[in-house]
Each structure stands twice: as C-alpha cells, then as structure tokens.
Amino acid sequence: NIFLTDTSVSDPSFGSLLSHTGAFKDAERLMSNAYGTLASFINVLGTSTSNKIVYMTLLNKGDKVIVDRNMHKSIIHSIIVSGANPIFLKANFHPDFGIILPTRKEIVLKQIEENKNAKLLSLTVPTYDGLRYYLPDIINYAHSYKMKVLVDEAWGAHMHFHTDYYPDALQSGADYVVQSIHKTMGGFSQSSVIHVNDKDFSERKRDFYENYMFFSSTSPFYPIVASIDVSRKMMSIEGKQVLERMKKYYNILVEELDKMEEFKVLRKSYLRGYFEDINEILIDYSRIVVNFSFAGITKKQIWNYLVRNNIIVEKINYKSFTLLLGVGTTTNMVNHLLRVLKNFKYEKRELYEQSHFFHWDDIEVKIPPFEAYQSEGEWLELKNCENRISSNMIVPYPPGIPLIIPGQIITMKHIENILMIISSDDIEIHGIAKGKIKVVKEIK
After folding, report:
1. I need a surface site. Which of 128, 167, 298, 312 has the fewest CB within 10 A?
2. CB 431 within 8 Å of CB 423
3. What are φ and ψ of residue 206, in 5° steps?
4. Can you give the pLDDT at residue 357?
C-alpha cells in the first residue's frame, strides 16, 4: 500500500535528502558506486529539475551554452533561470519517420570551434526515439577548450548495465549526466539522478548544494527514493540479464514487423544521408520506431485501433509510433502486441497528411530567452503573431521538444504548424491558451 509508505521528514532515523545524510547518503553512495562516478545525487522532482540544478551551478547570466536542438523543454527553462546565452545546434529531422534525430557530429564540432568561450556543451543523448551517437570525440573536443559537458541521458539510465551500449555518457567523459530512472528502469515517476564526474566539482560543491535545495521540495516523497534505490540494486545485480531479455524481445518484434507490409521499422539503413558515418549511430533496443504512413494508414486509424486493443504506444506522430520495451516487459505482452498488429485491418488512404506534418526548424533568437520571458508581454490571437517575439515556449507533448522558445520570432510557418496541431484532437500542446500566444509587448 503506497499510502502506508509515505513518511514524514520529521522522522530523524532516515536522515535528510536535502542535506544528503543518513539513509539518503548511503543510497547516493551506492548509486555512485554502481555508475562509477565521483558523486551521484538523488532527485525526486524529475530530470527537468535536475537540468535546472546543473545549469544554475555551472552558468551565470550571459554565459554562453551550446545546446542540442532536440533538447527537452526543461533545458529552455534552465536557460531562462540561469540567464545563459544559448547557441542552438542545427536541427536534424527525418521527414519519413517524423522524428528529430541527433545533431550531426561535424556540426557539433564546428559549433564548439566557433564558440570556444562557451562554458557548457549541453547534449540530449539518446533521443526520445532511442538514437545515440558516439560521444567521446565530441566531449574530448569540448574539454580541449575547457568547456564542461552536460548530457541529458533521461532515456538512457539502463545503458550503463550492458556492454552493447558502451561507451555511455559517463564512460565517454561527460562532466554531468542526468537520468530518469522511471523511463527505462523501475523507478516511480519523477525518479531522477544527477551523476557528477567533474574534476573541478570541489570548487562548485557549495553552489551545487544550494541550487539542489533551491529547486527541491522540503517535503520529498520518500517512496520515490526507495524506488530509485531498488532500481539501482536490481540493475546492478541482474541488469545484463534484464537487457538481454529486452534485446530478445526487440529482435522478435522487429523480425515479425518486417513481415507486415503495413509497417516499416527504423533501421540504420534509413539514416543514410542524415549522418556522415551511420556506424557511429546506435539504435537502442528499448525503443522501436514503426512507420505506418508508407501504406497510406492514417494516424487516427492506427491510434484508435491500438487503444481499443489495450496497446499504449510511447509516442505517435503522423508518420510513426514508438514502442517502449521496459524492464517489466513479458513474453505475454510481446505476443499480445504481435497479435494485435497482425490483425490490423485498415482502409487505405491517400498520403494527404504528409504535407501537413509539422517539424522542428532551427532556432534563432532575436533577444535572450530569459529577457523575453521576463519582459512585459501580451496575449495575442495566433493569426496576429507573425513577426512578433515569443515570450513563451510552444511545445507539442510528447516528445516535449519546443517548436518555439522565448526570444524567437514567430513566422507564418510556425503559425501554420501550430494550427495543424490544434486541429488535431490527440496532440497536447503547451504554451497556448484559448488560441492565444504570449508575445513580448512592443514599445509604441
């Protein structure tokens, strides 16, 4: 009974999560040992909060940060609260599958070279859809300019426990890695860990603790901490076996899906032309991206059918859906999914939806995000927002990657994309209220 496990912070026998004492200190020490870090810190408010803690620890107002285009919205929040000046990496988008890809390696290296005075390189690896690239070369290059590296590995906490995924972000030399234990391991929602391998951390330790307390609750939910600790123990003992089982299910599903003419599974061969060397790209076998649009199937057809048959996909867009295999996936679940997909009957449609699919453009800001966010604003009807500076983020969810961020000029293309999203009854979008967007108020 989860209600019986909630415990008051007034009980001194547990120690304090905010002060990292007692049982919490022990749990963090064991987490650090499991991942081979200088230090690891448990956070019960999600990796969105972990990102803010790291940004506020490393950056001051006006400091330059190089940021992945496929970042989660919490990275923009982190930029706003820290007052940092972002340099956004060029988007890499796959129109056939409707997913945002990792940034090309040569683009990352070029931006590091052109922004040698940046204080932080902030990468999101793996992506929501399970794509990851080889990190050591990039991290080493950033370090050559004394840049710190933060990797948002929210979707990759499991990767440390199987050699197929080596080197992970920590093994690649990242200074800070944030992970969501609830996404691909067994933690409760909001389970997060901040891993630290920064050789200069002793100089920032006091700032880190202050920012940890600044963004934390004084009433943490202890069962989340317990779930993180149990997940760590489970993966430390049997992580390899768990991931081998996941890999087996992945191979079974991919083999069977390949026999169905309605579906195409994302493979490395579909990534040619999007990366200089596709051999440096890894597809995580906890995720399967399945394209249904080649056969003329509409999103509504496949979504309604899956839900009726008790299949909840991790994410769906107008081209593909993403299946998530977890540490608790069973043979019965896999067999049920295959039965459902094999029995799918559909009415073939023209591919009219393809031309209306939105995608993520490159980001160029007119004014710094923190300035736009804090400026006096006004809420305008969407149709009146062209060429105005956004004060808010506009974010389709999932995957939580912003279409527009504060400080960005709103274009007609943005407006058309947003109208398309609004017209759909099954896409959640953050940042719009009753058809209006908040923009920076113009001085008359």
Report:
1. 312
2. no
3. -65, -40
4. 56
What string of DSSP letters covers 264-277? EE--GGGGBTTBS-
> Which domains does the chain show, CATH number per domain?
2-231 (3.40.640.10), 364-440 (3.90.100.10)
Indicate left, alpha or beta for 340 from its phi (over 0: left) and psi (-120 to 50: alpha): alpha
Whether this prediction's pTM lies above 0.90 is answered by: yes
- Provide the CA 294 distance to its chain's centre, in angstroms: 27
Phi, psi of 233 (to 5 degrees): -65, -45
Give dist(CA 161, CA 36) in Å, integer.
12
pLDDT digits (tens, 9 = 90+) for 325-358: 999 999 999 999 999 999 987 765 544 444 445 6
Give the model confidence (pLDDT) of 354-404 as tens digits: 444 566 778 889 999 999 999 999 999 999 999 999 999 999 887 889 999
Length of the chain: 444
- What Cα–Cα distance (Å) separates residue 229 from each residue in 13, 34, 159, 393? 17, 11, 17, 34
**Each residue of 376-398: b (16+ CB within 10 Å) or e?**
ebeebebeebeebbbbbbbbbee
Q: Which helix (H) or strand (E) holds 290?
A: strand 287-291
Mode of pairing for the β-strands spanning 120-124 and 148-152: parallel
Angstrom distance (rounded) from CA 177 to CA 170? 7
- Rounded distance between C-alpha atoms, residue 260 and residue 105, angstroms: 34
Q: Which residues pair with 143 in a beta bridge?
A: none
Q: Calculate Rg over the CA atoms of the chain.
A: 22
Q: What pLDDT is stored for residue 349 in this prediction?
A: 56
Assign 395 to helix, strand or coil: strand
Residue 77: C-alpha distances to residues 56, 369, 378, 418 (Å): 11, 9, 20, 21
Alpha carbons 419 and 128: distance in angstroms, whole number? 24
Q: Which helix (H) or strand (E) holds 307?
A: helix 299-308
Q: 211 near 53, Cβ under 8 Å?
A: yes
Distances (CA, A) of 379 to 361, 418, 431: 23, 16, 11
Structure tokens at 154: 């929210």
DSSP single-letter state for residue 187:
P
Residue 273 neighbours by CB under 8 Å, 6+ apart: none
Q: What token pair was written down for 134? A: 């080889």
